[in-house]
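Appendix B. Chain record.
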Amino acid sequence: MKNFLFSKEAKFLVAFLGLCMYAFVGNAQSFTLSGKVSNEKQEPLVGATVLVKKSNKGVTADFSGNFKISVVAGTYEVAVSYVGYTTKTQTVVVTGNQKIDFQLQSGTNILDEVLVSGVRVKADAPVTHSNMDKAEIAKRNLGQDIPVLLNYLPSVVTTSDAGAGIGYTGIRVRGSDATRVNVTINGIPYNDSESMGTFWVNIGDFASSVENLQLQRGVGTSTNGAGAFGASLNMLTDGVKENQSAQISSSVGSFNTLKNTVKFSTGLLNDHIEFSGRFSKIRSDGFIERAKSDLESYFIQGNYKDENTLIKALIFGGEEITYQAWYGSTAETLASNRRFNGAGLIYNPDYSIRAYYDNQVDNYKQDHFQLHWSQKYSDELSSNIAVHYTRARGFYEEYNQVWGDDPIAIENQSEGNTDNITRRYANSHFYGTTFNVNYQKEQVELTIGGAANRHDGRHFGETIWSRFPGNSEIRDVYYDRPGDKRDFNLYAKATYSVNDKLKVFADLQQRRIQYDAEVKESPMVEKSFNFFNPKAGISYTANEKSNYYFSYSKAHREPTRGDFEEIANVANFPKPEELNDFELGWRYKKNNLRLNTNVYYMHYIDQLVLTGQIDLDGAFKKTNSGESFRAGIEIDADIYINKYLSVRPNLTFSRNENIDFNEDKEGVVSNIGNTKISFSPEITGSNAIVVRPIENLEFSIFSKYVSEQFLTNYEEDDKKLDKYFTNDISLTYVVYPKSIFESISFNGMVNNIFSEEYESNGYFDPDWGTYYYPQATRNFLVGMTLKF
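Structure tokens predicted for this chain:
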């Protein structure tokens, strides 16, 4: 940390934070437009968005619902929105300082809020979180996956196997890997039930169908699916559109990247029914050699709504074919060719490269069906029930070369000792129901809900070719292992307003998991888990500017299928994990400044930390570490300096340690004391400098710093990722024609403008050494969106 404090990166970040102080200086605008946003009951809508249309000026309401925005004299269309309420637009003529109040009516959108009320929190809840809406997502949505679009949120680190953000991508939050980030889509679990991984590549361009999302750091609120041990990401898909519309988006970029998207909405037919959809295709060669991606996806939605009812039927999914890029490269290879890809290599006996297998691919399909019924019975009572089904199937194919001390020459191979090509399949059915009932009256907000889900999976392998097949047949199955997982949970969460300033929050969840599976080199797994996860917190709004909160959360999480395979075969089944999460935060809103700061302490028992090694499928192996902790401070701000300039910095300092970590070498266990947890940087920080030189033009500079990370839990210098500091530039320009098109948007991104050579991921192989995943040097994406 000392080296960082005197580095050029630190000076750059300090300069960013120094700009924050400018927010306290009087702004240079001619007049102030101010007011208050409330609902029909005159209750303030904390965090409501106030936007001056056809410009880039906007603010959020403070903890009393008040807002202030600086404008020059003129006539403006001001739109005020809040999730769960109908957006209100009003023409305002500004000739001096002016005050105008907005009262929003609960409408169709409040039923969208019912959809996710079981997993979302409000702005003043005692949960550390960040929100992104459709407008913010669209500015950088040029084909890269959702983790990459979240890269600049606090405590987030992202990586891409192909190096350019398309294909297999991952996200880590507070050092916790992607299997600990619980993802829901409209409250329905998305993580794979067995691996708990999130494979965004299967639903390419899903960001184009997201209305808004919320990333909760730490345990967060009770949610459906696997327990959140680092964060939970809750996404709400496109809402009901009143008017018919169409949209065509295309983008091109480096590495032969091409994305095409078509969207449509019928608008409300007979004031009740709406159909909408999206079709997308993305192709990219990737930064890494042969790391090509061919992604097709779709999203079809039908809605029925009246004053108190919303029924949504959704079908979405996609198919991906990607050339494998999860092998990584050694340090020596990176020095000579950073784009080298070892997947599909076929060697001569002297280790020279003979050829590449041209179909070393991952081929997978996913189709999702969701049916939601949201009902508002009165101003106090509403409910949502959903049923869902996911069909997933696919394989990865690879050429397996015979290895001994040397590759065996073709003429020396024989039956049982021969080159072959295999396919390893994963087929599954995932289905179930989620439900919640919401009650709100005066001082009490109460949600009772739960879910019952089942995953029926099958893992098997086929040999599709063998140089000397002998008595084997094509498509011979050489392993076949079923898996059956059932997950049931009930929760009740309540917020009680003691007075206008103090709210008390409680959340109780009971979760039961039954897992029956056959895993390699292990006995049949027949395990059941019962977890009780209590949470409590307080939120204190001192005044319209400041809100303080404190929360405590306990969470448990079951091992994954891979954990059983890697740990159970050494005589001990993996243990479930326990987490006690403490969060203390302060939120501040004043005029054009929003500041969030919080400290956290996450104490784990039997955390399954990454060992730094990977299995045959490219997934990271884990081991129970006994006691461990993650502690840190997070700071993020949004400063509107004037109509031309705003700044959005964030910074995290953390410690992530195993306590009395045990090392097992060839059966000899020894205690090596406290060690740093793998893949857990002590410092992460990012910043966005947003410049608006003219109306409808926005120019942004994004910066990201990540300190060094160890690949194992032994703090070995030859097994770590070096720190890196990258910078991107984005450009958005919107034209509003008078006819034909509603708008024409031009977007551009230049990523890694200084061509920083860095690696954001890696692993260690005991036999072959340390491998790294290099990320792309300078590259670009440009796009255009036509809205009708």
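Further analysis of this model is presented in Appendix C.
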